[in-house]
Structure formats: C-alpha cells, structure tokens
C-alpha cells in the first residue's frame, strides 16, 4: 500500500491537506474513517496498522478525532480515527461527508457493540456519501474464549447490507493490513478508473488474499 509514511498523528485538528497534497504532488486524497462503539478497538487497529504494535490494557477513549496519513504513489491516504462515545457523535458526523471509505467495527466479545451496528449503518446512510465504501470488521478476534458473536453472525449481517466483512485482531495483527489495503485498492481503482482494466472487486480481492495465506491465519 504505502511507500512512505509522511505524517504522524494529531488530535482534534484536520491536517493541512492542501499543502500536503501540493508538496507531495499527489493526484488524489483518499479518506477512510474508523467508526463503531467506544472500546471496540478503533485506535488500536489504527496503531497496529500504522506502527505494527499493540499496547495492551491502555484504554483511553479517543477525544474528538485522530488521524494518520500514508502516501502511496500519487495518492495520499488519510485515515481518521473517530471517538465512539455518544457525546462526540456530532464531531463524527461532520467527517462522514468527506469520507470515501468507512471501516465499521464491533467487538466480537460485546453483543451490544454488534447490536449497535445497524444504528451505525443508519447513521452512515444519513450522513455519508451514497457511494461510500463500507467494510464491517469484527475486532478482538484473538479473544475467542470470550466470544459473544459467532463469525457467521457477522457474515450474515454483512451480507444483509452487501458489505465486505472480516474478523480482525488489533492485538495479533490478523487481517489488519488486509482490511486497510483492500479498502485503499478499491478507492484507488475508483479514483483512476483505467478503462482497459477489469473492475476491482473488493470481495474477490479479500477471498484471493485469504486463499493465498491459507485457511488458518484468518478467523
Ligand atoms: N485483546 C484485544 N484487545 C483489544 C483489541 N483491540 C483493542 N483492544 C483493547 O480494547 C480497549 C479499547 O481499545 P481502543 O482502541 O481504545 O478502542 P476505541 O474503539 O478506539 O475506543 P474509543 O476511542 O472510545 O472510541 C483497549 O484496552 C485495547 O487494548 C484486540 O484486537 N484484542
């Protein structure tokens, strides 16, 4: 996905996108945001993707917004980490409009976070662009002994809304790169639209990557 990481994280401020785009000579900015209930692991997933590490037992709820930026050839990929707490919801709404993709997380050990996914999807359909790419992620897949939501329940919900789905673990890193890469590839395909190239199919890409890696490294 990325050849260079250019900017670290901030909190509560939009990055100076235009300046960054100009200085990096990018053709397009791709914006992905992470949403879901407080505590499902949005920040941890982003930290695992960005820095390849997991800091256990360090739950400090996100306040407002955080972000990471990655630079791939000709593209700047901004990834926004939103606060799951209800009191920051109006801040999150403001970011939906500019999002090209949404990673919607629940925690496989928390039934309420799964039950709330429908409400999140209603909100997304209300505030986000109609062609936004949505991916459903069941996080904390390493905690199988505390599992409250079976994998097939996640799959069924994703099928109902026609969105791709996978289980991830911000702790072990399982499927973390795949989730971000699949979304970035879909967005890049849409931004460039090579007429002679076959249409990028996010579901097929995920399945192909699964097969490549073998059955058991995926949940
Ligand atoms: N075992 C395990 N713990 C996780 C995983 N992801 C997150 N956690 C833990 O869950 C807690 C909450 O994680 P956060 O990443 O802060 O959750 P969040 O969704 O960003 O929460 P808000 O900022 O309030 O919206 C922390 O204690 C993390 O260490 C995971 O994949 N596996």
UniProtKB/TrEMBL annotation:
<keyword id="KW-0653">Protein transport</keyword>
<dbReference type="GO" id="GO:0046872">
    <property type="term" value="F:metal ion binding"/>
</dbReference>
<protein>
    <recommendedName>
        <fullName>small monomeric GTPase</fullName>
        <ecNumber>3.6.5.2</ecNumber>
    </recommendedName>
</protein>
<dbReference type="InterPro" id="IPR027417">
    <property type="entry name" value="P-loop_NTPase"/>
</dbReference>
<dbReference type="InterPro" id="IPR001806">
    <property type="entry name" value="Small_GTPase"/>
</dbReference>
<keyword id="KW-0636">Prenylation</keyword>
<dbReference type="GO" id="GO:0015031">
    <property type="term" value="P:protein transport"/>
</dbReference>
<dbReference type="GO" id="GO:0005525">
    <property type="term" value="F:GTP binding"/>
</dbReference>
<keyword id="KW-0460">Magnesium</keyword>
<dbReference type="InterPro" id="IPR005225">
    <property type="entry name" value="Small_GTP-bd"/>
</dbReference>
<dbReference type="GO" id="GO:0003925">
    <property type="term" value="F:G protein activity"/>
</dbReference>
<comment type="similarity">
    <text>Belongs to the small GTPase superfamily. Rab family.</text>
</comment>
<keyword id="KW-0342">GTP-binding</keyword>
<keyword id="KW-0813">Transport</keyword>
<keyword id="KW-0547">Nucleotide-binding</keyword>
<keyword id="KW-0449">Lipoprotein</keyword>
<keyword id="KW-0479">Metal-binding</keyword>
<keyword id="KW-0378">Hydrolase</keyword>
<dbReference type="Pfam" id="PF00071">
    <property type="entry name" value="Ras"/>
</dbReference>
């Amino acid at each position: 996905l990325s050849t260079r990481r250019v900017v670290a994280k901030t909190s509560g401020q939009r990055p100076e996108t235009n300046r960054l785009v100009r200085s990096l000579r990018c053709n397009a900015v791709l914006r992905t945001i992470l949403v879901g209930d407080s505590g499902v692991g949005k920040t941890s997933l982003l930290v695992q993707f960005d820095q390849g590490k997991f800091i256990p037992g360090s739950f400090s709820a996100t306040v407002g917004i955080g972000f990471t930026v990655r630079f791939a050839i000709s593209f700047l990929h901004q990834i926004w980490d939103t606060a799951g707490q209800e009191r920051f919801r109006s801040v999150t709404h403001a970011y939906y409009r500019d999002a090209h993709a949404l990673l919607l997380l629940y925690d496989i050990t928390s039934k309420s976070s799964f039950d709330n996914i429908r409400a999140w999807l209603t909100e997304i359909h209300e505030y986000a662009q109609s062609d936004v790419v949505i991916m459903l992620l069941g996080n904390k897949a390493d905690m199988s002994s505390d599992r409250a939501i079976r994998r097939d329940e996640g799959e069924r919900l994703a099928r109902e809304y026609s969105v791709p789905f996978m289980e991830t673990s911000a702790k072990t890193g399982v499927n973390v790169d795949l989730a971000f890469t699949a979304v970035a590839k879909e967005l890049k395909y849409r931004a460039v639209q090579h007429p002679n190239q076959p249409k990028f199919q996010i579901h097929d890409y995920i399945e192909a990557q699964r097969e490549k890696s073998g059955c058991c490294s995926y949940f």
